[in-house]
Amino acid sequence: MDFFDVVKQRGSYRDEFLPVEVPDEDLKAILDAGVRAPSGYNGQTVSFIAVRDAKLRQQIAELLPTPATKTAPVILVVASEPNDHGSMNFEMVDYGAATENLMLAITACGCAGVWMDGMVRSGDMSAKLAKLLHVSEGKTIRTIVPFGKPAKPVSQKEKKPLGERAKIL
Ligand SMILES: Cc1cc2nc3c(=O)[nH]c(=O)nc-3n(C[C@H](O)[C@H](O)[C@H](O)COP(=O)(O)O)c2cc1C
Fold first, then answer.
1. Nearest CA to ligand 1 atom 11
2. Given the CA of residue 159, which atom of ligand 1 is nearest to it?
């Protein structure tokens, strides 16, 4: 798929997924897109877990019950670690760059998913997920991304006109 078509076709998909597996090569390509994201000083402190195991997926869905988490064949988990250079902290920006790479790669593979950062921030959800997945101390789970082949149409939310948000000088 053309890169700019991928950008336009990506949309947050929160509904059910078809009961089909994501091929290994697609999953590897999606994770590879995540690790290839830029990071401050090339710190590369963002890490990924692809949860395919049915029991673990069910346990995640019990913590965060949505149609997407209950039916996704894969739930990606994105964790970050500090990436500090003097007074500059790149951890959150690095995590955002890596996660957008994942979202675009998911779209390019004909799949869809949703970046669930807000829901992972609520209460002690991030810590609960870290405990379930045995994520080492020092890493913080920032989001999960349930994804797969969508059972319903995917659409991107309407964006403000380009001229309101960008200018060419
Ligand atoms: C940092 C961030 C946090 C988000 N958290 C959630 C979330 O917790 N739950 C959810 O359903 N969508 C979440 N989203 C998806 C946004 O709601 C979505 O990107 C936005 O509504 C625009 O829609 P679009 O992705 O289709 O363009 C999040 C997106 C970002 C970038």
1. 116
2. 27
